[in-house]
Amino acid sequence: MIIAKIEPKADYQLCIFAQDGRVGLFDVSPYLTSEAFIALKGEDNFMKIHNGKYFIEWDCGAD
Questions:
Q1: Closest CA relative to residue 36, chosen from 20, 52, 60
Q2: C-beta separation of 39 from 45 below 8 A
Q3: Domain of 24?
Q4: 63 lies in a domain?
């Protein structure tokens, strides 16, 4: 799947749009206890997202 667009939403949700037209909502909140994602607990950090086309990456280094 190639990610066409990502929209960060409230409550640590991501709306993901695939290049083939599929759309889905992904809840990141269950992962916030993991060391790799703990920096995303601040919503400011969560909103700073980058589309890697095959992955999602945040400014803080989480992916």
A1: 60
A2: yes
A3: 3-58
A4: no
